[in-house]
Amino acid sequence: MSEHRRMSLILFSGEMDKTLAALVLATGAASMGYRVTVFCTFWGLNLIKKSEAKAHGGMLERMMAVLNKGGVENLPLSRMNMLGVGPRLLKKMMKGKNVASLKELLDTALELGVQFVACQMSMDVMGLTKEDLAVPCELGGVATFLNEAGKSQINLFV
User: Three-class SS of residue 140?
Assistant: First the structure.
C-alpha cells in the first residue's frame, strides 16, 4: 500500500444506494493501492452499527434507536423505499446481476484494509458506544478526519 496515495471519504448517509456508492469507491481505491479512510458520521454510522444495537442514555436516545435501526442489512433507499419494498427489489436485482451486496462490499473493504472511523460526537448524540459497532474501527472527531483529509489526494462526501 502506497503512503503517497490516500482517499478520505465522509459517509453521512445511512441509505443503501449512497452507502453502496461509498463502498464501491472505497474498495475500488483500496484495490488500486490507495490508503482509504471512511469517516462515518450521523446516519453513516448505520453502515457499521450492529442492527441489534440499543442506545444508551435517556429516553430520546432510546427513541432514536427504535426509529433508526441501522445495520448493513437494514438500510433504506434514498428514493423509492416504499416501506422496505424498494431495498428488497434492489437487492434481488443486484444478486441477479452478480453485484456484491453491501455486506460483501463491507467485508471486502475490511479485507483490503479500508479504515473506518466512527464519529465520536455522533455516537455521543445517539447514545452509542464502541460495543454497538459491528466492525473494528477507530473513534474520532473532526480533527481525526481533517488530519487524514489533509494527507489525501481524493476527498469525497457521500
Answer: strand
